[in-house]
Amino acid sequence: MQLNPASLFLLKKISAKKRADNRSSVTANHQGANPKPGPKSKSHTERFQNWLSPKPAAIQVYPGEQEIFRKGLVLVTDTRLAYIDPFDRMLKTYMFEHMISLHKQFYRTTAFNQILCKLLLILCILVFFVILTIDFFDSSSGGFFLAYIPLFASILLGLKVWNDMKPSYIVHWRMRDHTYGEIAQEPFLSERFKGDNKREIFMNELVSAMNQALSAKAWHRPQMLNATDSNGDQTTTDDSDRSHSNQSSTPRLKLVTDNYQ
């Protein structure tokens, strides 16, 4: 049987099509056996850290609220203050409509006192190691142990002063039902040595946001009270009645929460 060029071209085309079909079927089977990986999962270290210190979910903002400040576990909107207290392990919410006062109490020592206290502590520790070295290598220093008494006393006194100079930042407020709430922050020892003031910045931003929300929600001007009759010809002879009518006719600021009582 003799094959012409047209037949050879047709056979090559059929064989190429079969090879392409076989290759596509093999690729599909391979993809079915090894599916594409999904989103990257957390590493073993991240899962272990989350297991050690699980973080609570972020506080949600509800429809109609405007977020003013959010950092960590604290959220301030134009309606409420919501935060998770790490000591009570409780979500606390305070409505600015029922908040009547806000107090800021910050304490921070001066830079000179902080540097002076650090230098004195370092000097006392160096003197302690010098005395200890001399006492250990010099056999003739029998009564040298008496130097330890004032040295230890000075170190304890320096630590007490260092503890009393610890910065503290407290924001506390008073509600309409005479309850109080507060948020307190104190820097760690490492933050004090490095001079890190991120907690002070956080508390300043929190107070600014609470003042903004409180100034917009707490007060409004009531309507004028009608102190006279419909004819407008009211006369009084008693001084107490006259003073009472004058006081009731003057405009005053009124709490929004008075409408709920």
Helicity range:
40-55%
Order of helices and strands: HHEEEEEHHEEHHEHE
- Tell me the fraction of residues in β-strands, as a range: 15-25%
Poorly predicted regions: 35-39, 221-238
Q: Any idea what the shape is?
A: flat
How many distinct helices? 7
Number of beta-strand segments: 9
Major beta sheet, specifics? 4 strands, antiparallel
| Strand order in the sheet with the most strands | 1-2-3-4
- Termini separation comes to 110 Å
Task: Specify the structural class.
Answer: alpha+beta
> What is the mean predicted local confidence, pLDDT?
74
What's the Cα radius of gyration?
38 Å
Description:
The protein has helices spanning about 5-35, 45-50, 110-135, 150-165, 190-195, 200-215, 240-250, and strands spanning about 65-70, 75, 80-85, 90-95, 100-105, 170-175, 180-185, 220, 255. It has about 260 residues and is of the alpha+beta class. Helix 3 (about 110-135) runs antiparallel to helix 4.
What's a quick, concise take on this entry?
This protein has helices at about 5-35, 45-50, 110-135, 150-165, 190-195, 200-215, 240-250; strands at about 65-70, 75, 80-85, 90-95, 100-105, 170-175, 180-185, 220, 255.
